[in-house]
Design goal:
The chain is an all-beta fold. Helices cover 2% and strands 34% of the residues. It has a five-stranded mixed barrel. The radius of gyration is 15 Å and the shape is globular.
Length: 177
């Protein structure tokens, strides 16, 4: 369920430290004039890494997956992922860092649709035009990889975008709302 749809820039979004917050699950569409494309963002709650009280380990362009889809709870930690359902990527983290602390319930906006730049190279020799999904590698941090459909119980991979330019780490995201 989409709680509310916005058409204002993320820079105008209320910050948790101001006492005015959006609701977890809110969706925000924004026109990116430089990319000449719409981008879609979702307000989520970020799950800290196991054994970590805070989330200062995350960076712009890092992949996040759902730890609990119905609660809009996401994580960049492979060990906490519910299935292989990509949530999106972290955006504008440096400007929100203080507001993503435990004091403010670790809530932030992630990009879920539209052109984006990843923090890491897409794995498995993906080329422009290839569909991508989340890696199911044993590494703790999530990465995007070439989509290879698998059908193991509870571990189906779902494509979440298309690689635009491998060298520049540019993708067209299409993660679920």
């Amino acid at each position: 369920m989409i709680n509310q749809v916005f058409t204002t820039p993320l820079t105008d979004a209320p910050r948790p430290s101001t006492g005015q917050t959006d609701r977890v699950g809110d969706i925000r569409w924004e026109w990116d004039f430089s990319a000449k494309a719409w981008k879609c963002y979702k307000y989520v709650q970020l799950l800290a890494a196991q054994g970590s009280a805070d989330v200062n380990f995350a960076a712009n362009g890092d992949a996040v997956a759902y730890s609990d889809y119905s609660a809009h709870l996401v994580t960049p930690d492979q060990t906490d992922v519910e299935g292989n359902l990509a949530a999106g990527i972290i955006v504008n983290f440096a400007n929100w860092d203080g507001d993503v602390s435990a004091a403010y319930s670790k809530r932030m906006w992630i990009q879920i649709k539209g052109p984006a730049t990843l923090s890491q190279t897409v794995a498995a020799s993906a080329a422009a035009g290839d569909r991508i999904d989340l890696s199911s590698a044993s590494a703790a941090d999530l990465t995007f990889t070439l989509h290879a459909p698998t059908h193991t119980a509870g571990n189906d991979t779902v494509p979440c975008g298309v690689l635009i330019h491998a060298g520049n780490k540019e993708v067209l995201l299409d993660c679920p709302f």
